[in-house]
Design goal:
Elements lengths: L7 E9 L3 E8 L2 E8 L7 H4 L4 E3 L5 H4 L2 H11 L6 E5 L3 H15 L17 H5 L5 E5 L4 E4 L4 E2 L2 E11 L8 E18 L8 H9 L5 E16 L25 H16 L3 E5 L8 H10 L7 H7 L11 E5 L8 H10 L1
Parallel strand pairs: 3-4, 4-5, 5-6, 11-12, 12-13
Antiparallel strand pairs: 1-2, 2-3, 7-9, 8-9, 9-10, 10-11
Length: 345
């Protein structure tokens, strides 16, 4: 295959609709780059503890129920550091109120008599809590840098989180892609701009005084989407149709960000070597399941191929790309039953 090497390894993944979803990834052999997509109460929770970045698709408890335990465990296990949580903006105020309530439960004597309407920002009570969180609100089309760029030789990797709109019916929800930009230092250097035009003697005096007069010549050599995650969504949130306007009454997508959101969603299907895609219902013959998928904002197995076709998935010959189907309904357990349903379809 002529495909490039993948940047991320999947550490562990566990997902069951209504129970919990948590996907843990990191760069091979570098736990400092570990991050998590969603944090439900799942059996792989211990793998998530070192993750300094947690990316939340939406605030249903099977996707966010373990975040407070994670914040506490990460602080205890990772030298007191505070993880960052990326959350749909509409859910941020409620998450902060829940953080305060969990802090009260966790530190009962310190919060005794507390009635709960003050902010967690500042104050001795919030500082004493082990449940410390950097919460970043995200909207469709937003891009933020994940601050743990790796250095190797003359190269530096920068990772960016990009959010795109999905459709989980009336619940604020996002999908995400992570892209990587690799900057390679050529080994050459040049005078800093402020020193250009000075004489050799003047530059020599600056050097003897300890000034750094040169800077490395850098060259950006590559930019790639590395992984994508749809979160919970119905098929309508993923299908590509021409000139889709923002849904009526949807204030989460501003005019300025709508085009970026659409671009990031297209990147998820066209460029990501690993795509985690929700598929909750698997029975092709069951019309009721198709109706449930549409009404609850989920994908039915019969809709997967139309979504992939609309996104041009099969136009590329790169057989190294993976679609990982997650979020199966409990009704399809055990795994052998789920596989039989997919094959029969």
């Amino acid at each position: 295959s002529n495909s490039r090497d993948r940047y991320f390894d999947i550490v562990s993944a566990w997902s069951c609709a209504g129970v919990g979803t948590s996907l843990i990834i990191q760069h091979a052999h570098d736990i400092k780059t570990r991050l998590a997509f969603d944090l439900g109460c799942t059996p792989n929770f211990a793998d998530a503890i070192p993750a300094s970045h947690v990316i939340i698709s939406h605030s249903h408890l099977d996707h966010i129920g373990a975040v407070f335990n994670h914040a506490r465990a990460h602080r205890l296990a990772c030298g007191g550091s505070v993880p960052t949580y990326y959350v749909p903006s509409a859910s941020v105020p409620k998450l902060k109120r829940a953080q305060l309530a969990m802090s009260c439960l966790d530190n009962h004597h310190h919060y005794e008599g507390f009635e709960g309407e003050s902010s967690l920002e500042g104050g001795s009570r919030s500082e004493s809590s082990l449940i410390q969180m950097n919460i970043v609100g995200m909207e469709p089309g937003d891009e933020v840098e994940l601050r743990f760029g790796r250095k190797k030789g003359g190269c530096r990797d920068r990772l960016f989180l990009r959010a795109f709109a999905v459709d989980h019916r009336d619940h604020p929800a996002l999908g995400y892609v992570i892209s990587r930009t690799t900057t390679t230092c050529s080994g050459r250097s040049q005078l800093k701009e402020e020193y250009r035009g000075l004489s050799g003697r003047e530059i020599g005096e600056l050097i003897r005084s300890g000034a750094e007069v040169k800077m490395p010549v850098e060259e950006t050599t590559s930019s790639h989407v590395e992984i994508a995650y749809t979160g919970d969504t119905c098929a309508a949130g993923l299908l590509l149709t021409e000139d889709i306007p923002p849904r009526e009454g949807d204030e989460t997508v501003s005019d300025g960000n709508f085009e970026k959101s659409a671009l990031y969603l297209q990147q998820a299907f066209n460029e990501a070597p690993i795509l985690f895609m929700e598929v909750t219902f698997l029975d092709y013959a069951c019309e009721k399941q198709k109706e449930l998928a549409a009404s609850r904002g989920h994908v039915h197995i019969s809709e997967v191929i139309p979504v992939l076709l609309s996104r041009g998935w099969f136009k590329k010959s790169d057989d190294e790309r993976l679609v990982v189907l997650i979020h199966l309904s409990l009704r399809h357990r055990p795994a052998a039953k789920a596989l039989d349903l997919i094959v029969d379809g």
